[in-house]
Design a protein that fits this description.
Largest sheet: 8 strands, antiparallel
Number of strands: 8
Structural class: alpha+beta
Order of helices and strands: HEEEEHEEHEHE
Radius of gyration: 18 Å
Shape: elongated
Helix content: 25-40%
Distance between the termini: 17 Å
Strand content: 35-45%
Length: 160
């Protein structure tokens, strides 16, 4: 088990691996709704930024209830964050994050009044990782099945 500082550093390092996230909000009648969004920036404290449409369901739902969950995964690491979402109108930051890939969703570019930013202010997180990547995970799984010993991956909960 790591110290809280080590766990926060590991979480921050893991966040750098992810390009896409599933962002979950609370919709009508308490129904959870998730959608994929591209991560624009990973701040050390776990906060994440996304470019979104002002008319999108994520903006509407965060406006009604700011509680959000974010999940990210790769072949050898998984992260879950809990926090609050807020719409941030910052044209300078939006231009900084803008890439040609965003033109597919927002053809009028970063000056489009419908384009805005969603900031997820994370308050806690949890991560799972498998040292050595996918090959080590497979070897560990086979070893576990053959020996009956539990698989040795890393898992920590982090308060941010």
């Amino acid at each position: 088990m790591s110290t809280p500082t080590e766990a926060r550093k590991t979480l921050a390092d893991l966040l750098k691996k992810f390009r896409f996230a599933m962002v979950t909000t609370i919709g009508d009648e308490g129904k959870l709704t998730s959608r994929p969004l591209t991560v624009q920036e990973h701040e050390f404290d776990g906060d994440l930024w996304f470019v979104v449409g002002r008319d999108s369901s994520v903006v509407t739902e965060v406006g009604r209830n700011p509680a959000v969950g974010v999940s990210l995964s790769s072949n050898d690491a998984w992260v879950s964050l809990a926090g609050t979402g807020e719409v941030v109108d910052d044209r300078g930051r939006l231009r900084e994050y803008w890439s040609p890939a965003l033109d597919a969703w927002f053809p009028d570019g970063p000056t489009d009044p419908n384009v805005t930013l969603l900031k997820v202010n994370s308050v806690s997180g949890e991560y799972w990782s498998s040292p050595g990547g996918i090959v080590a995970s497979l070897v560990g799984y086979v070893k576990s099945r053959l020996t009956g010993e539990t698989y040795d991956g890393r898992n920590e909960s982090v308060e941010l």
